[in-house]
C-alpha cells in the first residue's frame, strides 16, 4: 500500500458521526479536525483502489481514508452541538485504525496532547477541552493512551482518586457530580481501574452486589435494578463481572439464549426484542457471547455479510444498516465485531475491554474471556 508523509500542521483528526440507538434520541456527533488556518485540509495518507471495491470484502483503504480525512466543519451546527463527544470519537477512530493495522494514520503526539488537554485537576476527563469531567469520557481517554503506549503522560493517581470519589455507598457509580447512576458507570469504573492496575482502590465487592441487583428473569441486565434487559447494558454488566472475577453470577445458558435471539433473518443483531438490526450490536451482543463462551450460538457468516453490506463503497465508513449515512461510531463497532469474528487481516480484539488484544497483553492483563471454563 502506497504511503505518503503526514501533514505537519494538523493538531488532531476527528470525525463526523451520526449516532442512532434503540429508544434513544438520534444524535449527530461531529469530531472535527482543529488545524492551522494555512492548512485547512490534510492530504489523505493512503492511496485509493482504482477498481470498484467488492461488496463482500472489508474495504480497509477506504475506511482508513474515511477516518483520517474527516476535517473541520465549523460551519455545521453539529460541530457546536456535539463537541462533548469528541474524545469518545478519538477512541472509536484510533481503535478501528489499530484493528486494521493502521494506527499510525493519525498523528500520535497530537492525539496524546489533545487527550491530556481534556483532563481536569480532579483527574477526570471532559468530552472536549474545557468541558466538565465525566466518567464516561475518562475511560476512552485511558483507552486511547493505553493504545498509544502513553499512559505515563497523565497522573494515574488523580484518575483513580476521581473514579473512587464517584462510588456510592450501595456500590454503584455515578457518572459525575450530578449523581446519575447506571450500570455503564460500574463497567467504566472497573475497566479504568483494571487498565491502570488499581482495582484495590475501589470497593469491587459492593459494585458486584449492585450489578447483580440489575439482573432480570430473562438472564439479561438493565441500567438499574428493575430496568429492561438491553444488549448494551448486558455488555457492561457481564464484562464488569468478568473484570471483578464474578461471572458465576451470570446464567450463561439463559443469557446466551436471550442474546442469540437478537439475530434477525438478515444476519444483523438488535438490542432488544422487536427492534431493528444495527451494526453496533454486532459488538454489544457478540462480545457478551464471547465472554460467556457462547459465540457459536449465532450465525457468524450471516453477521459478517450484514456488517459488510453497511459499508460505504465510495467514501468509506460503516453505517448502522445498509443505505444509511456512515459514522465513526458504527465504523468502529462494525470493525470490532468483524475482529471478534476473526475476519482475515484484522487484529484480535479483547471482548471485555473493547481494545486490541495486543494492547491488553502489553499491559500484562489476563485474557479474562479465556479464563472461563465452559459451564
TrEMBL record:
SUPFAM superfamilies: Terpenoid cyclases/Protein prenyltransferases
Annotated cofactor note: Binds 1 zinc ion per subunit.
InterPro entries: PGGT1B-like, Prenyltrans, Ptb1, Terpenoid_cyclase/PrenylTrfase
Record Gene3D superfamilies: 1.50.10.20
One function term, GO molecular function aspect: Rab geranylgeranyltransferase activity
Cofactor: Zn(2+)
Function summary: Catalyzes the transfer of a geranylgeranyl moiety from geranylgeranyl diphosphate to both cysteines of proteins with the C-terminal sequence -XXCC, -XCXC and -CCXX.
Name the record gives this protein: Geranylgeranyl transferase type-2 subunit beta
Organism: Umbelopsis vinacea
